[in-house]
Amino acid sequence: MNLALGFGHRLKQHSGRGVALQEDIYLEIRRENSDTLEDYWQAATRFEYFLALATNGLVSISSIWANIETDKPQEARRSPRVRIMYQPIRNSSRRQRNRTSRPLFTLSEIAGMESDCLRKWYSSGAWLDTVCALNFGTLFNPSKYQDLSFLTLVQALEAYHRSVHPNTDMPKAVHESRLERIIEAAPPEDRQWLGEKLQFSNELSLRRRLKLVFKQFACVLADVLPDGKATASKICDTRNFLTHRVENLREGAASDADLIRLIEVVRLLLQACLLHEMGLGETQIKDFTSRSESARLIRHLTR
């Protein structure tokens, strides 16, 4: 797949208000194979996510065009250009989060690495689209219910770690041997029930995953969190309460300003994770995330 970023200008007529000069930024996608529209759409969406991460702002496709190519040389110059029916996301003030910080990074700051960054970004599996949709969905279509934003972001972080680090509590063969011993020791009438209960017993818990992510990006959190271990535990306790709504878990859960602080901590970690997936090193990740509005809010709410 070949990507080319271009710029153009066109006159746009407004009814009763004259004509305006509009600048268009377009992404041209060329593939070696004959792919479906869905493949091209996925590539464009992935690029939207890349720009949203870089600019920390809403980036949406305004229109989609396709050039119908032909193998006949005499027809190549006049290959038809077709506009594909597409309803863009309206860039309304309600969808934008009020952000005053500068972008996380610019193209010049990854100069010489941009090809590798995009290659890594596009070579990631379908899980990246899921994580980005959850992450940017809370940013550009925010809910007044902070509980939902928190749960969505934690889900995105957990999905990221499960996809990139498919670790288990113990080696698969060892776990299967242990399961077999446990189930065989149970009464025959309880074995099916017990097997279903233990089906995901080798999965890492959220608490363990948070501990690993906090350790991986300790350089990002060092300047904004005085106690990362306590914060990770609070995130887990809050997720458990908001998910299960068991009254005896309420005391350990965050609320109000502390819940907002945890939301920004998870958002900052997701930014670090996505920058890592671009192939950036620890120094750049620390530098870029330090500009994040999330980092500023965490410092303010931790006082």
Describe this structure in words.
The chain is mainly alpha-helical and 303 residues long. The chain folds into two domains: 2-167 and 204-302, no CATH class; 170-203, no CATH class. It is 52% helix and 11% strand. The chain has 13 helices and four strands. It has helices at 37-55, 73-76, 114-123, 127-140, 146-164, 172-185, 191-197, 206-216, 218-221, 228-244, 256-277, 282-289, 293-302, and strands at residues 2-14, 18-30, 64-67, 81-84. It has a two-stranded antiparallel ribbon. A hairpin with a 3-residue loop joins β1 and β2.
Brief summary of the model shown:
This protein has 303 residues and is mainly alpha-helical. The protein is 52% helix and 11% strand.
List keywords for this structure.
two-stranded antiparallel sheet; single chain; 11% strand; globular; 13 helices
Terminal CA distance? 48 Å
Overall number of structural domains: 2
Mean pLDDT: 85
Overall shape: it is globular
**Uncertain runs:** 91-99
List the total number of helices. 13
State which percent range the strand residues make up.
5-15%
Number of strands: 4
Quickly give the structural class.
mainly alpha
Q: What is the radius of gyration? A: 24 Å
- Which strand order does the major sheet show? 1-2
Describe the biggest sheet? 2 strands, antiparallel
The ordered string of helix (H) and strand (E) elements is: EEHEHEHHHHHHHHHHH
Into which percent range does the helicity of residues fall? 40-55%
